[in-house]
Amino acid sequence: MTSFFKPLLIVSLLAAAGASVNAQGMGMGMEGPQSGPMGQHQRMDPAKMQEMMAKRQADLKAKLKLASAQEAAWAAYTAAMQPPAGMPVGPESRQAMHDSMAKLTTPERIEHMNAMKAQRDAEMAKRNEATKTFYAALSPEQQKVFDANTMGHGRGHGGPGKHAPQKS
Q: What's the pTM value of the predicted model, to 2 decimals?
């Protein structure tokens, strides 16, 4: 090989090896607390989540300017929005659930996952009905405020009210 091609071959091999290592580090086989965007894979503290939820609800209630006749509907709505009591919260309970699933056969795991999905679907249906019932108790002006302040909250969409339609 000529002296020109030998360094070129070495550089090409090093670049290919570097690209391979980089691809593995970008999520191919990487697990644990470093995975996810910017290495943020841990779940939020349940107490902080509850605090944030209470603050959002208080902000929404203030913006809605509820009449005293609407307070019962608000109480029913906020009660339905609370997370279910048996939900695994910390890493210990998630690990215990994982360990119990590992003891099941594949068909048993599938059935267990289907049962958990059915439970989540039932809880979501309950929250949806509570939201519709509360929404029906609001005036048209309050419904507009509710619409503008509840779209996409809690999922990294910019928070309450960030998706309100632009006025022309």
A: 0.60
